[in-house]
Amino acid sequence: MTATIIDGLSYANKIINNIKYEVNKLKVKPKLVVILVGNDNASQIYVKNKQKRCLEVGIESEVLHFDEKIKQDKLLDIIKQLNEDIRVNAILVQMPLPSHINSNLIIETISPLKDVDGFHPYNVGKLALNMTPYSVACTPCGILKLLNAYNIEIKGKHVVIIGRSNIVGRPLALLLLNNDATVTVCHSKTENLKQITQTADILISAIGKAHLINSTFIKENAVIIDVGINRDKNNKLTGDVDFNDVFEKCNFITPVPKGVGPMTIAMLLQNTLDLYKTQNNI
Length: 282
Ligand code: GUN
Known about the structure:
Blueprint: E1 4-5, H1 8-24, E2 31-37, H2 41-57, E3 60-66, H3 72-84, E4 90-93, H4 103-109, H5 121-128, H6 138-149, E5 158-162, H7 169-178, E6 182-186, H8 193-197, E7 202-205, E8 223-226, E9 230-231, E10 237-238, H9 243-246, E11 252-253, H10 260-279
Parallel strand pairs: 1-11, 2-3, 2-4, 5-6, 5-7, 7-8, 8-11
Antiparallel strand pairs: 9-10
Helix pairs in contact: 1-10, 2-10, 6-7, 6-10
This protein binds guanine (GUN).
């Protein structure tokens, strides 16, 4: 038996088309402001991609690019201005930030109503309590949408997440718990990782280590979700999972690229539109 490849790119395009249709009907277009600090190559590529997708669907986007030496207070002032600006519906501060800037303070300063990443403690707290946040982190949202799109049962299933970041692992654990999964979160200090992953009905890897997960880590017929974006020794984009090795053993698998990545951007556009609607009582 071979696995079904979960086509994240096609599904993301479908969602993006729906967003385009909805945005087209709006007189005043939603607006996203992205704050980029410094010259990190990967961050610049991500931000360009986000801008391109916004343009495609008719969401207005503005990138504010600052020198890596920008003072924290200046950045805080800019965020406060954006919070007050009624033309701005969504604010994204691209992570990581330079080490002299307190990322938590930056995130806490963004209005929860404009927090397109779902990183603000207000929104994470609502998620933790299974209440309704204004937004939920884009990658976890995208993963949930993909599981639903492929009719993969979550209720009662053992989901093992590798990685406990604020961007993926933690919000994903909460989201899946809210969907009645039994969730285990593994991380760099976890002992006996392999024994745990072998019990996963759904294994989600978000650690950033190329090809760490091979067939010995997984249960027969498991669902494998690969959030890793790594470069292998030939500089080729690759996930955390050894795709060819697990392919015969698993039931479903997301490829890298064209798996989870496109869904993250689709969810960013969806969150922007949803925040716009909330702010305008639509
Ligand atoms: N850096 C890597 N992923 C993300 C993301 O989803 N949002 C932000 N703001 N920064 C990131």
